[in-house]
Write a structure and sequence with these properties.
This protein has four helices and seven strands. It has one domain: Gcn5-related N-acetyltransferase (GNAT) (Aminopeptidase, 3-Layer(aba) Sandwich). It binds coenzyme A.
């Protein structure tokens, strides 16, 4: 997409991003890692922490805006236990235009310059959009693990696919 700007997340993104996250949750809860629908208060708290961590360079968290400054997408990369774990979302109306791929590769290229070698994505097996998106961007499936959704009830198991880019 032309006229797309990529910049670090800021406190002004919290409100529009919370809205996008709630929309995503309504679309398909398995797009996100929340166990239940987050309240707006919870989202503001999580996102405020993320903004502060990005400003302290503890995580990478970038957003993409269109020519009018409208927030289209967010990509976070968490250096959890030495791995670089990716979380990415694109507002529904902007999908399928390369916004996600451009933002993802911008973040990966920048972290590679800082020495990162491997990138991971943990995706719900029902999330075909994300599975084909990461595959298209060079990720390979590493493992598929069944995890209990809640209370160890077996019928409630979710299959999590881990994908890696080396
Ligand atoms: C996965 C996701 C980030 C991809 O973003 P995107 O901007 O649509 O990605 P791109 O346009 O770069 O690539 C889209 C790919 O998805 C598929 N796609 C095609 N049309 C699409 C559409 N209208 N909507 C969504 N995906 C489409 C195709 O595989 C396409 O590849 P192609 O360009 O070779 O046809 C986005 O679908 C999303 O936000 N999903 C919900 C959140 C999520 O599941 N995140 C991943 C968890 S970490």
């Amino acid at each position: 997409m032309s006229n797309m700007t990529i910049r670090q997340i800021s406190f002004s993104d919290i409100k529009p991003l919370s809205k996008i996250i709630l929309e995503l949750y309504e679309e398909a809860p398995y797009f996100l890692t929340f166990k239940e629908k987050p309240s707006i208060k919870t989202l503001i708290l999580i996102l405020s922490t993320k903004v502060a961590m990005a400003e302290d360079k503890k995580i990478m968290d970038m957003v993409a805006t269109d020519a009018f400054g409208t927030l289209m997408a967010e990509c976070e990369i968490l250096p959890k236990t030495g791995k670089n774990i990716i979380g990415i979302l694109v507002k529904k109306e902007f999908r399928g235009n390369g916004v996600g791929s451009t933002l993802l590769n911008f973040c990966i290229d920048n972290l590679r310059k800082l020495g990162a070698l491997e990138f991971y994505a943990e995706i719900d097996a029902r999330n075909h959009l994300a599975l084909s998106f990461f595959k298209k961007n060079g990720f390979k499936q590493l493992s598929a693990v069944a995890v209990p959704n809640s209370d160890n009830v077996q019928e409630n198991e979710t299959k999590i696919i881990t994908m890696v880019l080396r």
